[in-house]
Amino acid sequence: MNIDKEMNELFKLLDQNNDIIKLKKINNEITQKELDLINNYRNNPSIENKKMLYDNKIIREYLHCENNVNYLIMEINSKFKRRHICQK
What we know:
By secondary structure, the chain is an all-alpha fold. The chain contains 5 helices and no strands. Helix 2 (18-29) runs antiparallel to helix 5 (57-82) and helix 3 (32-43) packs antiparallel against helix 4. The relative contact order is 0.12. The model has no long low-confidence stretch (mean pLDDT 90).
């Protein structure tokens, strides 16, 4: 088994993942408005600020895609662990 080859294949597949492609696109769409909402919530994590954050379409879509990618990463990690590829 050629791990390098399989890893390269995995990276190519990830580059074609819709959520990853969307994240890259959304990342370019983030304006100062979104950054202000994020910083406002970080500085004052209230329910109202969180609601304002989630009411923003760009942030909401970004978080949705990010969650999907995180689930994908968890699944990939579990597959590696089952195959004993990433053991110490």
